[in-house]
From TrEMBL:
It comes from Dehalobacter restrictus. GO terms for molecular function: DNA binding. This is TetR family transcriptional regulator. PROSITE patterns: HTH_TETR_1, HTH_TETR_2. Transmembrane segments: none annotated. InterPro entries: DNA-bd_HTH_TetR-type_CS, Homeodomain-like_sf, HTH-type_Tx_Regulator, HTH_TetR. Signal peptide: none annotated. Residues 26-45 bind DNA. The keyword DNA-binding applies. Residues 1-63 form the HTH tetR-type domain. It comes from the Bacteria. The keyword rRNA-binding does not apply.
């Protein structure tokens, strides 16, 4: 592992895994965690913002890669749960608040990365889950990305009072299974039952 990677890993551990956030992370803490001097850190990164951006790049690339590997699963609920679990690692409530208030440009970067790569992810999910679109793929993907930018944003999630997993689950379920259903439709009821079971499983994971 080279020095640059060591610095980024230390930043990820403190800011994201330990939920310290970027704004409360001091260079002294980072240098101590990485086992390096502040001078060495600034030799590789011109500013804290450059380091934070590099950390975001690393984490989002890993999340996208894990989501694409979910294509091995045959069950759509497993895929949805896996996607949400992977994303929630980065977008936890403390981290959302930190990005929203102190580093809105980093949130925009996350959103741009998400929009660039979501198209490939959608194709993988559709193929692996053996689902097909009933509408034009361009309309579906554009609608999904537009809605995602509003719903899966720091402001909406913090105001909703729900966790990122809960918001994401409702959002993806709406796009995959639809927002409304006739009460007499057995297949729709089965989808709702699957959704309820998935909510319980996510709640158990959060409480565990």
């Amino acid at each position: 592992m080279d020095t640059r990677e060591k610095i980024i890993l230390a930043c990820e551990q403190l800011a994201i895994k330990n939920a310290l956030g970027f704004s409360r992370l001091s260079m002294e803490e980072l240098a101590k965690a990485a086992g390096l001097s502040k001078r060495t850190i600034y030799r590789h990164f011109a500013s804290k913002e450059d380091l934070f951006e590099a950390t975001i790049d690393k984490v989002t690339d890993e999340i996208i890669a894990r989501n694409l590997r979910l294509s091995d699963s045959k069950d759509i609920n497993t895929i949805i749960a896996g996607v949400l679990q992977n994303i929630s690692y980065l977008i936890n409530p403390q981290f959302l608040a930190d990005l929203s208030h102190h580093y809105p440009m980093l949130w925009q970067k996350i959103d741009q990365i998400r929009q660039k790569k979501i198209d490939r992810l959608i194709d993988h999910l559709l193929v692996s889950s053996k689902l097909r679109l009933r509408v034009d793929s361009g309309i579906f993907k554009t609608s999904l990305l537009t809605a995602m930018s509003e719903i899966l944003s720091p402001e909406f999630i913090l105001k909703s009072g729900m966790s990122f997993e809960q918001v994401g689950l409702e959002f993806l379920n709406m796009f995959i299974f639809g927002a409304v259903e006739p009460l007499s439709n057995t297949k729709q009821e089965a989808s709702l039952a699957n959704l309820t079971e998935l909510k319980v499983n996510l709640a158990d994971e959060q409480n565990g």
